[in-house]
Design a protein that fits this description.
alpha+beta, 32% strand, 13-stranded mixed sheet, 4-stranded antiparallel sheet, 350 residues, 8 helices, globular
Length: 350
């Protein structure tokens, strides 16, 4: 069925059109207007509306590049439905290279917000009213925190059938059954009936090519799953199997010192295995960091200087058999299907 114009805020986007808008956010103390960049790609045929968001935390940058690449895909010439892309949600934080808003609030704990509340609450309220409410599905793109790196992963409430279907379609190395955080965009979108995937990959302030490519191809797979894009002429014989995880916890430093890590992201570890060493500067006293459970490393601290109690390894419980069955975990860098004519083959970021 032929699409009708897509209404957004005070604008309209015609079928087959792509437009970029400066969505008004707030007034700065200088009385200059602060705006949020929004791009809408509206297909010629009716279909779902997919929301792509990044940099809700202003220091998480991989998603900005993921959205740029997605919006350049040749396949979008055959788009059914609409993509509503917001690569920089927390504009304040992005400009200040900060995770937070100027009021030191976490925007991703401020939804659904309030039109008469704090800066974060007003920001969130406007975003829900004019952007999230226009969409049928969403992918929210994140990274690990400062000096912490995450294995590419989808976090989702797998108790919701449509969310589980989309998580499996994304086919990341791992899928973590994750409780919804109070005040998160994922919670507010779910309350509106919008299934939202949360993609975590890489580290704050850094581009990571594997994380970016995994995110781009995962979004393409989701778009095919909800029929926004036509199926591949040569469909894979079966869906790539991700490692589905139900629980995880951080392993913390038993003492302070200089930390040498011995295990990479994605490694399977067994209970009691040495994962790293904390030593004094001369190495006269060394304390091993050992795994408390059998599982797979989905997050890791990258900073060699640690204090007692610092989070070092994020380990999700998994058996060796479960890890061996997960094709995506064995080859997380195999993110772009080179046989897919719709992929954008750009020089890798190094």
């Amino acid at each position: 069925m032929k699409a009708t114009p897509f209404a957004f805020y005070k604008w309209k986007v015609a079928p087959g059109e792509s437009r970029t808008f400066d969505y008004p956010l707030a007034q700065l103390a200088t009385h200059n207007a602060l705006t949020m960049p929004v791009q809408i790609r509206h297909g010629r045929s009716q279909g779902p509306c997919l929301l792509l968001t990044a940099a809700i935390h202003g220091d998480e940058l991989n998603g900005v590049e993921i959205i740029r690449r997605v919006m350049r895909l040749p396949a979008l010439k055959r788009l059914r439905g609409t993509i509503l892309a917001v690569p920089i949600v927390n504009v304040h934080g992005f400009l200040q290279m900060s995770r937070y808003l100027p009021d030191r609030r976490d925007l991703n704990r401020s939804f659904p917000g309030s039109s008469s509340g704090s800066l974060a609450a007003r920001y969130a309220d406007s975003f829900i009213e004019h952007i999230v409410s226009r969409c049928t599905h969403g992918v929210d793109l994140h990274t690990g925190a400062f000096h912490r790196c995450n294995l590419p992963q989808i976090r989702a409430d797998l108790g919701v059938p449509e969310t589980k279907r989309l998580a499996r379609a994304f086919a990341p190395p791992v899928i973590l059954n994750s409780a919804i955080r109070d005040g998160s965009l994922r919670e507010a979108a779910g309350d509106l009936g919008v299934p939202m995937l949360l993609y975590e990959a890489g580290e704050a302030f850094r581009f990571d090519e594997t994380s970016i490519r995994t995110g781009v191809q995962g979004i393409v797979r989701v778009m095919r799953a909800i029929e926004m894009l036509p199926p591949l002429k040569r469909e894979p014989r079966r869906q790539r199997r991700s490692l589905i995880l139900q629980s995880s916890r951080w392993l913390r430093a038993p003492g302070s010192g200089v930390f040498r890590t011995l295990q990479p992201l994605g490694a399977h570890v067994h209970e009691g295995q040495v994962m790293g060493i904390i030593a004094d500067p001369f190495g006269e006293r060394e304390v091993p960091v050992t795994a408390a459970d059998e599982g797979v490393i989905i997050g890791r601290n990258n900073l060699p200087i640690v204090n007692e109690g610092d989070a070092l390894f994020h380990v999700a419980q998994a058996t060796r058999k479960e890890v061996e069955r997960a094709e995506t975990l064995r080859a997380p860098g195999e993110a772009i299907d080179m046989a897919d004519p719709d992929s954008v083959h750009e020089p890798p970021i190094v």
